[in-house]
């Protein structure tokens, strides 16, 4: 059991519970002794959480290492060392299609409402449009950057750096739905901003002094970038004319350890960064100021944290130690590791999770997909029930403890 620093350990034992009983002493009090006050009774409070996890599916294809995962619209997309993106249908997790090109490895995936964006080893992004409700079909509609756009801007005398593809592998993709923007981060230390309506590059951000490993975008449009320079940088869009509408606002330190993964809670209140030392640092956003402040670190992995994802009050991490850990964020902000998923024989490179009830469960759990460099895709179901603060009742009777 692991919790965030500054928290207490919770008990997850399954020992049978015996409620306290009112009993009399075996030695009678002396005659005429003043009566002793009766014991005070207070309801017995349980501080116990129950969790369980199981692997519900495991798939191995001849695609080599699994490098990327995305979940959307009832489908799971997996990118691998081959040039094939496999599509799996929920909830049965059966393969229902493939997206093929001649570009090589698929390093990153991002899915919007009806489009799939995939970053390949040739430093380009392929775009597919999804159609069909029953059996989905995907049609490739574009490859970016577009050669014609680059040539047109070069002839017009515009900044040709805006149209060039990344000079290194693309490590991460993120979508800003409200502003209709696609972000791509690369090991060439830059972030490119693409307008999704016409797939044009509208900005190139010289973001870090070292390769960029991950990016996330909040609902408020704020961009977060993580790098091997052991920092996380925060960028805001100014909505002004010019070549650099994104401005750097603050740098968050990750304690001298390269940051390999980023994740943000749905409400944007907590930002997580997974590092090569096995720690997951997190920052809390102030409700009034909106500024991020360091909140602590989660420790449990023995090797580098390679991927993170967050859904509801769960955080899922994948590591080079071949395990994935599931953390739950309590109402008081404390974090507890409720499950350690073991079964892979190689580092876990990508992870995705959802709580849409496809397994017929209630909202006290989540379904997790883990992709590993061993070439195996595993699907897990994790359930968690917290009874903290509830009175123990059996057969309609309430038990009390002596005070």
UniProtKB/TrEMBL annotation:
WD repeats lie at residues 163-204, 205-235, 298-327. SUPFAM superfamilies: WD40 repeat-like. InterPro entries: JINGUBANG-like, WD40/YVTN_repeat-like_dom_sf, WD40_PAC1, WD40_repeat_dom_sf, WD40_rpt. PROSITE patterns: WD_REPEATS_2 (PS50082), WD_REPEATS_REGION (PS50294). Keywords: Repeat, WD repeat. The keyword Repeat applies. Transmembrane segments: none annotated. It holds the Pfam family WD40. It comes from the Eukaryota. This is Uncharacterized protein.
């Amino acid at each position: 059991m692991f919790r965030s620093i500054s928290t207490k350990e919770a008990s997850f034992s399954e020992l049978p519970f015996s409620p306290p009983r009112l009993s009399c002493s075996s030695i009678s009090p002396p005659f005429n002794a003043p009566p002793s006050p009766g014991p005070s009774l207070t309801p017995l409070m349980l501080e116990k959480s129950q969790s369980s996890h199981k692997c519900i599916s495991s798939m191995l294809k001849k695609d080599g290492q699994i490098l990327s995962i995305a979940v959307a619209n009832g489908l799971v997309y997996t990118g691998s060392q081959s040039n094939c993106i496999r599509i799996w249908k929920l909830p049965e997790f059966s393969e229902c299609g493939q997206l093929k090109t001649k570009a090589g490895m698929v390093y990153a995936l991002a899915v919007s409402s009806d489009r799939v964006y995939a970053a390949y080893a040739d430093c380009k992004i392929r775009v597919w449009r999804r159609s069909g409700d029953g059996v989905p079909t995907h049609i490739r509609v574009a490859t970016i950057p577009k050669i014609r756009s680059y040539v047109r801007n070069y002839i017009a005398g515009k900044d040709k750096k805006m149209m060039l593809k990344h000079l290194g592998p693309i490590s991460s993709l993120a979508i800003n739905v409200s502003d209709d923007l696609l972000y791509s981060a690369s090991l060439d230390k830059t972030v490119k901003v693409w307008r999704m309506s016409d797939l044009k590059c509208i900005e190139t951000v010289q973001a870090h002094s070292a390769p960029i490993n991950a990016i996330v975008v909040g609902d408020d449009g704020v961009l977060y970038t993580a790098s091997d320079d052991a920092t996380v940088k925060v960028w805001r869009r100014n909505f002004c004319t010019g070549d650099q509408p994104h401005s750097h606002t603050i740098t968050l330190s990750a304690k001298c350890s390269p940051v390999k993964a980023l994740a943000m809670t749905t409400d944007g209140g907590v930002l997580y960064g997974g590092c090569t030392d096995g720690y997951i640092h997190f920052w809390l956003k102030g409700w009034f100021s909106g500024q991020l402040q360091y909140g602590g670190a989660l420790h449990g992995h023995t090797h580098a944290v390679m991927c993170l994802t967050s859904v509801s009050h769960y955080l899922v991490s994948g590591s080079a130690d071949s395990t994935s850990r599931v953390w739950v964020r309590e109402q008081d902000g404390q974090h507890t590791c409720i499950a350690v998923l073991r079964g892979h024989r190689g580092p876990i490179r990508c992870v995705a999770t959802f709580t849409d009830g496809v397994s017929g469960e209630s909202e006290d759990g989540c379904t997790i997909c883990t992709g590993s460099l061993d070439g195996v895709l595993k699907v897990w179901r994790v359930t968690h029930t917290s009874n903290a603060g509830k009175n123990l009742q059996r057969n309609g009777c309430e038990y009390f403890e002596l005070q």
